[in-house]
Amino acid sequence: MKLDFEVNGRAVAVETSPARRLLDVLRQDLALTGTKEGCGEGECGACTVLIDDEVVNSCLVAVGQVAGHRVRTVEGLADGEMLTDIQAALVRFGGTQCGICTPGIAVCAARVLEREPEAPRARIRELLSGNICRCTGYQLIVDAVAEVAAARSKRGP
Amino acid sequence: MTSEYLRPAALDDALRARRQHADYMVLAGGTDLYVSAAHRPEPPGIIDLFGLPALVGVAEEPDGTVSIGAATTYAQLLRSELVKLELPALWAAAREVGALQIQARGTLGGNLATSSPVGDTLPVLLALDAVVELASESGTRRVPYSEFVTGYRVTALAKDELITAVRVPPRPPGARQYWRKMGTRRAQSISKVMLAGCAQVEGGAIRHIRLGLGAVADRPVRARAAEAAVLGQPPGAQTAERARAALAGEIHPIDDVRSTAAYRLAAAQNVVARFIESLAEP
Predict the structure, then answer these.
(1) Alpha helix (H) residue ranges in chain B
(2) Among A39, B124, B138, B226, which is least packed, fewest CB within 10 Å?
(3) Average pLDDT over residues A104-129
């Protein structure tokens, strides 16, 4: 069936089975391969995207469910070549190694800091706990996000 | 191949679809049903209840009953002041279901429909004497959660029914609620043992007690022998010992990939004892 929804501010129409995973439609039909598949079981958060500003695992969503809704992927964060402050901090701190978890972390962190711009370190850890990283031990990821939180709260809302 | 996808706008439409298509997947947040979906055949059809307005929201009735729509997500429970204030054990459980990603999509009704022995909210429903509201085109019925779950991931839900709400009756005045989940790591883990408690102490004795346990049996269970062993007793270490002994006789957890029978029994005893002892604190 034909499904109409919005991805990164752009209207899209996809002809597909409504039962397919949103993750697969993003990657295969829309060529948005920034969203990664880790476990396919809703455990690891590598496939994190936003649906109507909620942080979700796109491997657990039937694409039919997003018809009429707004989806935002990692490709929708940066403005062209200009990285967001969170992406830039992840690069600067080395909060990434193999990189599979990084898009999901960037998407999750972007939303978390929109909602709780002054989240302290412990809260950042809790809010990012749905994004599993097997390389870094999380320290540099949390350092990067915490620095953005500090920088943003210093310059005010 | 999925040939039909239905997103009913009203409960009547959903109930009609359910009666007409018993073989369709009833989908809400997908946090159980879509696990490893890539490796399973597509259902013939989907009835999508996520966000159906009649099934979303939390309301308090005049007698103090709290009614929660079945498609209410954990994130919505966490944003509810009513839940935080009146049902703190449920609020605490919702905060430990997966992480943001799962909380945004997973629903209370979905947790009930699966009724896994490790469903995070289910011990809370037992501790709070929650009643499940089920609807079909022929009417509505209410079933206590303890009777709704009938076996390992088996429930009393009929083929033409949908779960519409969870109703939590008024708690005894001054009753305290308790929640503790134990897993391999603090976040994003499936439990080894869970305890939800609700207890009222009056005149120096325990006058009301409910102990709901998860991951110690084929389904979420109440520790009725342990409850009986402490009822009428003063809260504290001696009474906690009575609960420990009773618990050893009534729960028979198993060894599996996540834990061992011995660990689960010991952990359940410790956490029940901790709850009973905490009741002595002001």
Answers:
(1) 11-20, 74-78, 81-86, 88-95, 100-105, 108-114, 122-127, 145-148, 224-230, 237-250, 261-278
(2) B138
(3) 94
Contacts of B100 in chain A (CB under 8 A): 55, 108, 112, 127, 130
Q: Which residue matches tokens 């799962």? A: B102
How far apart CA A101 and CA B133 sit, in angstroms, is 40
**In chain B, residues 70-109 whose CB comes closer than 8 Å to chain A:** 75, 98-102, 104-105
We find that the CATH architecture of domain A2-76 is Roll (3.10)
Which class does domain B4-114+131-168 fall in?
Answer: alpha beta
Q: What is the pTM of this model?
A: 0.96
**Does B50 reach chain A within 8 Å, measured CB to CB?**
yes
CB atoms within 10 A of CB B186: 12
Low-confidence ranges of chain B (pLDDT < 50): none
Question: From residue B122, how far is each of B71, B111, B155, B213 by CA, in Å?
Answer: 15, 7, 13, 8
Main-chain phi, psi angles of B39, to 5 degrees:
-100, 10
A154 CB-near residues (< 8 Å, 6+ apart): none
Task: pLDDT band for A156, please (50, 70, 90 cuts).
Answer: low
Distance (Å) of CA B118 to CA A103, B212, B239: 30, 12, 27
Selection from B272, B92, B118 nearest residue B183 by Cα: B118
* Residue A145: C-alpha distances to residues A49, A74, A117, B252 (Å): 18, 16, 10, 45
Question: Which architecture, in CATH terms, is A85-154?
Answer: Orthogonal Bundle (1.10)
Interface with chain A: mutation pick from B100, B181, B185, highest number of A CBs within 10 Å: B100
B260 part of contact set with chain A, CB < 8 Å = no
Q: Which candidate from A41, A56, A64 shows the least CB-CB separation from B5?
A: A64
**ipTM reported for the complex, 2 dp:** 0.95
Question: Among the CATH numbers 3.90.700.10, 3.90.228.20, 3.30.390.50, 2.60.40.420, which is that of B176-278?
Answer: 3.30.390.50
Nearest-Cα distance to chain B for A89, in Å, is 22
Residues from chain A that touch B36, judged by Cβ atoms under 8 A, are 40-41
B126 near B196, Cβ under 8 Å?
yes
